[in-house]
Amino acid sequence: MDHLWEKTLSSQEIFKGKIIEVRVEEVELPNGQKSNREIVKHPGAVAIITLTSENKLLLVRQYRKPLDRVIYEIPAGKLEPGENPLDCAKRELEEETGCTSASLIHIQSFYTSPGFADEIIHIYYADQLVKQANGPGLDQDEFLDLVEVTLEEAHQLIKEQKIYDAKTVFAVQYLQLKKYGEL
Hints:
The protein has helices spanning 85-97, 151-159, 166-179; strands at 7-16, 21-28, 34-41, 45-50, 57-64, 69-73, 76-78, 99-101, 105-111, 120-126, 129-131, 145-149.
């Protein structure tokens, strides 16, 4: 066993909601001491780096209550129980942008905040977009604007802190590396 391992002594559910579960776990530390860990359980998510035929990045502009502000993000959504990430990416792409793509390529998966949450996000890339006649199919509680930006405009949105989340900053950096042939 790894010398950094923390042994779980007990686990208590504090909250179970529609999206997350919060647990407090008592652990034994590597030095034998005890401590508590507050853990957010999350089903995982997908996000799609989506380029139009004009080489513009599709972003959604939406209000985020935890931040109490509007930000720009790449299209994304939560995995349903047992859902395959690729299937979720196809669904979210169509729901949020009104587009489908003949090709969705998995780029990277990463944990968003491993210090307190187990949320993993799977990033896909799509550039062969086909607009659907019916347009976006947003959920009843989902309100957003679809925006197309150049890579330079995306960099400016980062500077202005209008792009302010890790998955979208990752997407912009990915496109920057792709543009200069470093991928």
